[in-house]
Amino acid sequence: MSIAEKIKAGVELNERELRAIAYEDWPDEEPMKFVDSVEGEDHRWNREVTTAFTVDGELYALDWLRALTENGGSEFWDQPYRAKKVTRLVPVAEYVKI
Questions:
Q1: Secondary structure in 3-state letters for 70-95
Q2: Are 11 and 1 in contact (CB under 8 A)?
Q3: At a CB cut-off of 8 Å and minimum separation 6, what does 90 contact?
Q4: What is the chain's Cα-based Rg?
Q5: pLDDT, tens digit, for every residue of 67-83?
Q6: How many Å apart are CA 95 and CA 44, to the nearest integer?
Q7: How far apart are CA 65 and CA 39, in angstroms?
Q8: With contact defined as beta carbons under 8 Å apart, do 53 and 32 qualify?
Q9: pLDDT tens digits, residue range 26-48?
Q10: Sheet order of strands, 32-42 included
Q11: What's the pTM value of the predicted model, to 2 decimals?
Q12: C-beta of residue 19 within 8 angstroms of C-beta of residue 74
């Protein structure tokens, strides 16, 4: 069963398959396309990352932790989930000369 078939069927992926999604390293025959990678907060040894991708045109995301040192390992605790893109506008205070 391919990674895409497992995702659509709700079958749990192993760490090798999750790593393939995170690093966009899936086989060419997979009906998957990379969409975006959003970096979040830094922690002592790793950084939060969300990788967004499509499977047969449906949007999915995977949350994982990228190692910040060459001695650390990336961590995969969660499975991919159906997602939707939300754009937020955040007001920024700025002080200008008058």
A1: CCCCCECCCCCEECCCCCCCCCCCCC
A2: yes
A3: none
A4: 17
A5: 988 777 899 999 999 99
A6: 33
A7: 9
A8: yes
A9: 888 789 999 999 998 988 889 99
A10: 32-42, 46-55, 58-67, 81-82
A11: 0.84
A12: yes
